[in-house]
């Protein structure tokens, strides 16, 4: 006879293992009585099949069953203070280019599987190129309303990305969703609305920050376009906002939704680990730099012409080489300060617009920062510099961003949480672990919440364990960890994730993120209090952001997570639960 089991979800049945324990010694039986209560608290339940007699040597064989809602933990459980919610990114093309929700029933089944696995919610790109495709201010939210209703029916929370960028051309992009056609029409007559490399390539995946305040779009500026779009979103999704289905609004600030320049793009021939190219050669940014240089009494200084190409290495360029590179000269510092500050101001302006739009809504605003880990272990940090992160030994390029986000009480969302140094190719001088420590520590020192994502799809225990470590760098504690991520979004929902072996490991990962207490439907029980959005602090000038560039040592990280994913099969699951009991008692 087979045991019936929902593999890896918060509700399970034990059959063979229970019989083996019952048929053991009296001491074993008594120990089982104690552990049974604990297992029930951890959402392991026992079926009526246990009344039937089975042979103790019978092999365990799992079988899928209809997904069930996970059982919530006791709200008095102190381990809830260690709970980190898990969200899953929906497929890029869940809404088609012609604004139709794709495969509703198939998606519904997948969402129910996520909920049964204890997942807290999902994240979705709300594509500008789909919603405002028909013309300026002609918004069609019908497909997204259908999607949001489905997510609500499946009892999941929702994170929404205001995606003001094109889908296609970046790592992992499986579909192409361009910017609205009328934007491209304007770009045909004025290509300088797009980021431009020194070689003249136009990056049409998002608008250049140079046009943020220029009324080039039928009388509107780019900032006004973003604001109008978000305002229409709020008006048309008011019921979902009031019901608190939508918990986060992540504001797109550049390519792939990240606050950066499009310095590395596969559509331009970039390949890892190329250093990328500076993107400031449109006529507007060229004029801005010329004016800036004149104000600094250096009208003779110009934009770099010695920084190499997309796939160069730092040492192959005059600008980034370690000995005598331009990046360390006064002229190089002058340019890099201007280049990075323009990005910071852009982020601040768009976030301020979002703050005004969602004023009074019970949501959290967020912004995403890219995890550019290659060439981190070099003097110049070349790939970071071309992306706009002025990060060097002795100079922190990320804490000013955190300070800017603190003005808007926004979450900093960072990537590459799953990566370890030893997994990277040595010649790329990668250091994702040090990068994560630096960025997260700087944000926490600015007293803002930090969330994270994996950069690439991974289904192995090593990747999940690294995410767990970065989620609670000092481990679990009955009084709550000293450091804890606000949430983690897993990239992404797909058939490969839902393959049986992959999904079993993923469900164990979710349980470990929840500190083995099971799914909790009430965020306030794990200290996530969402208050109505208040107006951004208007007394924080840009110079206050730049005062945060002094490098400081990051917080200490444990070597390994204390809630690791390493189990295999039901017996391993039982062992992991027992081990977690001892961990609780020792904290």
From TrEMBL:
EC number: 3.2.1.2
Record field: transmembrane: 563-582
Gene Ontology biological-process entries: polysaccharide catabolic process
Pfam families assigned: Glyco_hydro_14
Enzyme active site: 258, 453
Family: Belongs to the glycosyl hydrolase 14 family.
Taxonomic source organism: Lupinus luteus
SUPFAM superfamilies with a match to the protein in the record: (Trans)glycosidases
PANTHER family listed in its UniProt record: BETA-AMYLASE (PTHR31352:SF42), BETA-AMYLASE 1, CHLOROPLASTIC (PTHR31352)
Protein name in the entry: Beta-amylase
Binding site for substrate: 125, 165, 173, 368, 373, 415, 454-455, 492
Keywords attached to this entry: Carbohydrate metabolism, Glycosidase, Hydrolase, Membrane, Polysaccharide degradation, Transmembrane, Transmembrane helix
Catalytic activity: Hydrolysis of (1->4)-alpha-D-glucosidic linkages in polysaccharides so as to remove successive maltose units from the non-reducing ends of the chains
The protein's enzyme class: hydrolase
């Amino acid at each position: 006879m087979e045991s019936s089991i929902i593999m890896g979800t918060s509700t399970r049945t034990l059959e063979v293992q229970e019989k083996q324990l019952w048929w053991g010694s009296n001491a074993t039986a008594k120990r089982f009585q104690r552990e049974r209560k604990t297992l029930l608290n951890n959402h392991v339940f026992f079926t009526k099949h246990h009344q039937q007699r089975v042979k103790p040597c019978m092999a365990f064989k799992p079988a899928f069953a209809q997904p069930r809602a996970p059982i919530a933990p006791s709200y008095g459980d102190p381990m809830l203070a260690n709970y980190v919610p898990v969200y899953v990114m929906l497929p890029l093309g869940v809404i088609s280019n012609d604004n139709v929700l794709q495969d509703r029933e198939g998606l519904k089944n997948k969402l129910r599987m996520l909920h049964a696995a204890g997942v807290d919610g999902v994240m979705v790109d709300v594509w500008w190129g789909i919603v405002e495709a028909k013309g300026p201010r002609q918004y069609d939210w019908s497909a997204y309303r259908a999607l949001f209703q489905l997510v609500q029916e499946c009892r999941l929370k929702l994170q929404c990305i205001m995606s003001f960028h094109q889908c296609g051309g970046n790592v992992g992009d499986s579909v192409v969703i361009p910017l609205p056609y009328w934007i491209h029409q304007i770009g045909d007559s004025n290509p300088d609305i797009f980021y431009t490399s020194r070689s003249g390539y136009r990056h049409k995946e998002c608008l250049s920050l140079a046009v943020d305040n220029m009324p080039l779009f039928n009388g509107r500026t780019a900032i006004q376009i973003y604001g109008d779009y978000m305002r229409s979103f709020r008006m048309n999704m008011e019921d979902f906002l009031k019901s608190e289905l939508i918990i986060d609004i992540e504001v797109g600030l550049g390519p792939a939704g990240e606050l950066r320049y499009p310095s590395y793009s596969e559509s331009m021939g970039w390949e890892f680990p190329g250093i990328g190219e500076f993107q400031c050669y449109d006529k507007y940014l060229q004029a801005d730099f010329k004016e800036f240089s004149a104000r600094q009494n250096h009208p003779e200084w110009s934009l770099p012409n010695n920084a190499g190409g997309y796939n160069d290495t730092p040492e192959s360029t005059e600008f980034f080489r370690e000995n005598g590179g331009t990046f360390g000269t006064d002229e190089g510092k002058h340019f890099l300060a201007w280049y990075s500050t323009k990005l910071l101001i852009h982020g601040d302006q768009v976030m301020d617009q979002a703050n005004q739009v969602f004023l009074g809504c019970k949501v959290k605003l967020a912004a995403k920062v890219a995890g550019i880990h290659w060439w981190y272990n070099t003097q110049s940090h070349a790939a970071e510099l071309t992306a706009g992160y002025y990060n060097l030994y002795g100079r922190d390029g990320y804490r000013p961003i955190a300070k800017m986000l603190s003005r808007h009480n926004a979450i900093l969302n960072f990537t590459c949480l799953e990566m370890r140094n030893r997994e990277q190719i040595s010649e790329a001088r990668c250091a994702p672990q040090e990068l994560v420590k630096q960025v997260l520590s700087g944000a926490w020192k600015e007293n803002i919440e930090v969330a994270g994502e994996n950069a690439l799809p991974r289904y192995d225990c090593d990747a999940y364990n690294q995410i767990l470590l970065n989620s609670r760098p000092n481990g679990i504690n009955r009084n709550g960890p000293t450091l804890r991520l606000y949430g983690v979004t897993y990239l992404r929902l797909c058939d490969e994730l839902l393959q049986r072996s992959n999904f079993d490991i993923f469900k164990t990962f979710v349980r470990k993120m929840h500190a083995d207490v099971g799914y909790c439907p009430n965020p306030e029980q794990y200290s996530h209090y969402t208050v109505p959005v208040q107006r951004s602090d208007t007394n924080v000038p840009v110079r206050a952001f730049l005062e945060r560039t002094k490098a400081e040592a990051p917080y200490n990280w444990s070597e390994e997570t204390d809630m690791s994913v390493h189990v295999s099969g039901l017996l391993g699951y039982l062992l992991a639960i027992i081990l977690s009991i001892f961990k609780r008692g020792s904290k």
